[in-house]
Backbone:
């Protein structure tokens, strides 16, 4: 049981654990560069379900050469070194995709400011990204179109044409 007399010592011990190799190894496994497009001028940092939707959209629309993508799996303590390496890659713009509260976005903006990086970072308030509700592939598609600056041939969730003919041919 942590009583006030031991709180400071326990907190110091916890902070030491967060700096340990065990935590560093976890970050190495859970913060990964999914798309590493060397010539890309656009970067995306995402986490959670946004990454899954993003991967689906990238694959369906052949956008692999458009940008580089960093997925952050663990957000506390924030993976500063991995993220800073990504931020220093000379991008014109970086998009932050995370649902709900902009925790990752705020950490990235702080990291960029501390390191005097001038990259344009967009997140909550950009396009269809809001701090409430859940993302969908249609929302992420709209955000990507606005981020890239043009419409790509999207394969959004559209109603099927000739549904009756398709159903007739099913076993």
Residues:
């Amino acid at each position: 049981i942590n009583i006030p007399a031991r709180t400071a010592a326990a907190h110091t011990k916890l902070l030491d654990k967060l700096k340990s190799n065990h935590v560093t190894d976890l970050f190495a496994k859970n913060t990964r560069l999914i798309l590493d497009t060397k010539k890309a001028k656009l970067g995306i940092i995402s986490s959670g379900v946004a990454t899954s939707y993003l991967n689906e959209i990238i694959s369906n629309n052949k956008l692999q050469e458009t940008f580089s993508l960093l997925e952050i799996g663990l957000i506390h303590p924030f993976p500063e070194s991995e993220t800073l390496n990504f931020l220093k890659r000379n991008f014109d713009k970086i998009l932050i995709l995370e649902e709900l509260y902009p925790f990752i976005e705020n950490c990235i903006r702080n990291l960029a400011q501390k390191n005097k990086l001038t990259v344009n970072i967009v997140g909550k308030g950009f396009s269809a990204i809001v701090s409430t509700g859940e993302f969908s592939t249609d929302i992420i598609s709209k955000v990507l179109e606005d981020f890239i600056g043009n419409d790509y041939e999207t394969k959004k969730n559209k109603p099927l044409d000739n549904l009756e003919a398709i159903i007739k041919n099913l076993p």
Remarks:
- The beta strands are 31-35, 42-46, 68-72, 93-97, 120-122.
- Helices lie at 7-18, 21-30, 49-61, 80-87, 103-114, 137-148, 163-168.
